Amino acid sequence: MAASPEAASAPEPDAVARALDDAHRREWARVLAATVRVAGDLDLAEECTQDAYVRALEAWGREGVPRNAGAWLTTAARRLALDRHRRATTLRGKVPLLVEDALPVPGVEEAVLERLEQEDVVAAGGEVPDDRLRLVFTCCHPALAREAQVALTLRLVCGLSTAEIARAFLVPEATMTARVTRAKKKIAAARIPYREPRGHELAERLDAVLTVLHLVLTTGHTAPSGEGLVRGDLVDRALHLTRELLRLMPDERELRALLGLGLLARARSVTRTDAGGAFVPLEEQDRTRWDAALVAEGEAQVRAALRGGLPGRFALQAAIAAAHTTAPSFAATDWAEVVVLYDLLGRAWPSPVVALNRAVAVAFRDGPQAGLAAVEEVATAYGDALAGYHYLPAARADLLRRLGRRGEAAAAYGAALVRCDNEAERAFLRRRLAEVGEPPAAGGAVGR
Amino acid sequence: MAQYLVLIYEAEDAYTQASPQVLDDVYQAHGRFAERWGSAIVGGNALQPSGTATTVRGDVVTDGPFVESKEVLGGYYLIEATDLDQALEIAKAVPAPYGGVEVRPVMVFG
């Protein structure tokens, strides 16, 4: 069979699988977002998108991988959605349609068709209209609970399976499924609109998007539990999405800062564990193994994000990350600058975690004794909020160890171990515990 | 267009202890709200205090509101909006100085 002008001839099965995999990572959100406009319903759009990928496997194996996989998939998914609507004409009046500015009223099939064809003409030119922002802002609508925002974004925008999301966030799959279902129902029943926020809404809505992306990034950077320290796939999804959003909103400095922060974190991820998979603290990391290209790009993004006005919370976090990557060594880190940045961050984003990080920076600026005092201040101020947070006893343990107070340090390492669920971090804490000696027999002082 | 019920939950104590001036201010604020969003308002009422409520559960009748809480349902508006964002914009304008409002879409049958 002659290859169509769009397609390469005689595709290898492997090449098709790779192309499909690639298209899943890169195009899922674009295809789904464009399909929602025709389907008018998230579930239907999701089914049709999934179906389009299944059909692609077969069609591309036969005809070759199209030059514009995204356009092919979008056209296929939207046609599937339209077919389903046609077949379900009796039902159509009852389907709760997503509210969207320009979408014709259900039932005006000609209008939908006409528009679809217009968009296909555009698609044939290689440009698929980009609806991803609508999709992201719908998933991160403030009327949805934070965990629902995260789950929906990963599911609908990143194409992760519910099982994968459940694993990343340590909840049973059934819980995650219920969460996603409930959120989709609310979107339909409460008529959460499928559109980009306008003017004054944008700032508050963007903050939710940033928070969700940051949460995905940090969850991937240090997995809350399990064997490995880093879940690179999550970090990469978050980075990819952040980069794409920045392309659509290049003036959003906080988004740029988040990209910079993520890139700098990714650049260091290989050195954050040793050969055995145990966590390696910044102090002991081999800086020559940091990914120089990622560091350079990350630092450039951070510099750009810091220009043009007061830095926001992500710009400040990114500036702190950059202070570490620009330092030639741990000892040569500009701790005074880091403390100042944490002071500013504490004002822009008051949080016990920020306060604790500031205390650790104080320890390196003024010595472990001053640091310990700062940590105890944080513990007094935020004790309850940090009760299950293993980084508090871990910070305390590290400073006690530096002060040579081995018995107290051992007790604090024990307290950190009790609260830590990540195997890579536990291995590091156990190593340190062995260095300072076992905790005193009266382990009750560890507190529980 | 869809309909939403905007339920106003406030601390009743604040009103029982409030000066006539404060009560008048809140009353005026509702007047301004009704003027601004008149076309979207389908209906609405203030309710008598929760002490006047009677609860019926099955065929047991008891004194008091359905749920005891510090902030109680004190009134409502039934509004019409294109989507949740517009409903929330209207809801933000509903005066509720001693509490807040809950926005619930009205279920459509058929």
From TrEMBL, chain A:
Record-linked Gene3D superfamilies: 1.10.1740.10, Winged helix-like DNA-binding domain superfamily/Winged helix DNA-binding domain
Keyword flag Ion transport: no
One GO BP: DNA-templated transcription initiation
Family annotation (InterPro entries): DUF6596, RNA_pol_sigma70_r2, RNA_pol_sigma70_r4_t2, RNA_pol_sigma_r2, RNA_pol_sigma_r3/r4-like, WH-like_DNA-bd_sf
Transcription regulation in keyword set: yes
Stored Pfam families: DUF6596 (PF20239), Sigma70_r2 (PF04542), Sigma70_r4_2 (PF08281)
GO MF: DNA binding; sigma factor activity
Ranges of residues in domain DUF6596: 205-305
Ranges of residues in domain RNA polymerase sigma factor 70 region 4 type: 137-187
Record key words, sorted: Sigma factor, Transcription, Transcription regulation
Residue ranges of every copy of the RNA polymerase sigma-70 region domain listed in the record: 30-89
Annotated family: Belongs to the sigma-70 factor family. ECF subfamily.
PANTHER family: BLL6612 PROTEIN, BLL6612 PROTEIN-RELATED
Protein name: RNA polymerase sigma-70 factor (ECF subfamily)
Organism annotation: Lapillicoccus jejuensis
From TrEMBL, chain B:
Gene3D superfamilies: Dimeric alpha+beta barrel
Alphabetical list of InterPro entries matching this protein: Dimeric_a/b-barrel, YCII
YCII-related domain residues: 3-109
Family according to the record: Belongs to the YciI family.
PANTHER family: BLL7171 PROTEIN (PTHR35174:SF3), BLL7171 PROTEIN-RELATED (PTHR35174)
Protein name: YCII-related domain-containing protein
